[in-house]
Design brief:
With 300 residues, the protein is of the alpha/beta class. The protein has one domain: Acetylglutamate kinase-like (Carbamate kinase). The chain is built from ten helices and 17 strands. The strands form four sheets. It has an eight-stranded mixed beta sheet with strand order 3-9-2-1-12-16-17-15, sandwiched between helices. The chain has a four-stranded mixed beta sheet with strand order 8-4-10-11. Helix 2 packs across helix 4, helix 3 crosses helix 4 and helix 7 packs parallel to helix 9. The chain is globular and about 50 Å long. The mean pLDDT is 89.
Length: 300
C-alpha cells in the first residue's frame, strides 16, 4: 500500500464548544499530526480536512464585525490556509526533513446542482431551539437537529473536478506530503463564456477526498473522524459494521448531515477504483489502515 488519502473530520480537529486557534484546537491538531506521521512511514500521503465548525464560526465573526458578508467560498479559502498552516506546522515537527506543502484547492461544481435549493451540510456551532428559531426567522437559515442542538445547513454541491490535481501528482512524485482540498475545496461554478465564479456553498470534504484519491491513483482512502465506525440504526441500535460492500453501506440509509457522506465517499472510491476505504476514529488511524478497527469497505 504505497499511496493513501486521509480525510480528517472537522469535528475531530475542532470539537463542540472549542474556538478556532484555541489551545484546544492546537492539541487536537497535535493528535492528528501524530497519527499522520505514523501513517506516512513507507507511504505517499495526501491529507484533506474538514472545516465545518471553523467556517461557520468565521461567518459569525465576520457578521458581528459589521462589514459586508463574506461568501462561503472566501471563508473556506481562509480556513483552508489557517488549518493547513497549523496542520503543516505540527506534522513538520514530527517529520523533520520531509517536504510538506498546503494547496488552496479549487473544485468545480455545477451551477444548477440541486443542493443549492436543498442544503444538507451542517456548519458552525450548535444553537438552542429558541436561538435557532430566531435565526430561521431573521436570516432564513435552515437547520439540522441532533441531541446537541440545532446546526445551520448550507448547500453542499457534488464535486466534479479538482483544478489542482496535476500539481498534487507532481508534488507526490517529488516525495512531498500534500495537504489539499481543505473543507472540501473552494467551490467554483462555470459561468458565461467559460469563466468561473465562487459559490456560496461548502463541498463535502469526504466526497472531495474520494475524488482526489481516484485522481491520484491511491490504494486506500481513510475517512477519520470522532466516531469509531459506521453503525446500523445509530443511535437507537449500537450495531457496528466492520466489513461492508458499497451496496451494503448504502442500504443503511444514514443521514446526510452526519455519516451519510462518509459512506457515499467510501462506496464511490471502492466502486470506481477497486481500492479499499476505511471509516473510523482518528485515534485508531493505524488500526483502521490495517483493517483492525473501524469499518472497512471493498467493492466485493
Amino acid at each position: 500500500m504505497n499511496r493513501i488519502v486521509v480525510a480528517l473530520g472537522g469535528n475531530a480537529l475542532l470539537r463542540h464548544g472549542q474556538d478556532p486557534g484555541s489551545p484546544a484546537e492546537i492539541d487536537n491538531l497535535a493528535i492528528a499530526a501524530d497519527n499522520l506521521a505514523a501513517l506516512s512511514v513507507g507511504r505517499s500521503l495526501i491529507v484533506t480536512h474538514g472545516n465545518g465548525p471553523q467556517v461557520g464560526l468565521l461567518a459569525l465573526r465576520a457578521e458581528a464585525a459589521g462589514g459586508p458578508p463574506s461568501t462561503l467560498d472566501v471563508l473556506g479559502a481562509e480556513t483552508d490556509g489557517a488549518i493547513g498552516y497549523l496542520l503543516e506546522r505540527e506534522v513538520r515537527s514530527r517529520l523533520p526533513g520531509v517536504p510538506l506543502v498546503t494547496l488552496l484547492t479549487q473544485v468545480e461544481v455545477a451551477a444548477d446542482d440541486p443542493a443549492f435549493t436543498h442544503p444538507t451540510k451542517p456548519i458552525g456551532p450548535f444553537y438552542p431551539a429558541e436561538q435557532a428559531d430566531a435565526l430561521r426567522e431573521s436570516r432564513g437559515w435552515r437547520f439540522w437537529e441532533d441531541s446537541r442542538g440545532f446546526r445551520r445547513l448550507v448547500p453542499s454541491p457534488i464535486p466534479l473536478r479538482v483544478f489542482q490535481l496535476d500539481a498534487v501528482r507532481l508534488l507526490l512524485e517529488a516525495d512531498h506530503v500534500v495537504i489539499c482540498g481543505g473543507g472540501g475545496g473552494i467551490p467554483v461554478a462555470r459561468g458565461e463564456h467559460g469563466s468561473f465564479r465562487g459559490v456560496d456553498a461548502v463541498v463535502d470534504k469526504d466526497l472531495l477526498a474520494a475524488l482526489v484519491a481516484e485522481g491520484v491513483g491511491a490504494d486506500m482512502l481513510l475517512l477519520l473522524t470522532d466516531v469509531d465506525a459506521v453503525y446500523r440504526d445509530f443511535p437507537e441500535c449500537q450495531d457496528r459494521v466492520e466489513r461492508a460492500t458499497p451496496q451494503e453501506l448504502r442500504s443503511l440509509g444514514l443521514p446526510a448531515g452526519s455519516m451519510g457522506p462518509k459512506v457515499e465517499a467510501a462506496a464511490r472510491f471502492a466502486e470506481r477504483t477497486g481500492g479499499v476505504a476505511g471509516i473510523g476514529c482518528l485515534d485508531d488511524a493505524l488500526l483502521v489502515l490495517a483493517g483492525k478497527a473501524g469499518t472497512r469497505v471493498r467493492s466485493s
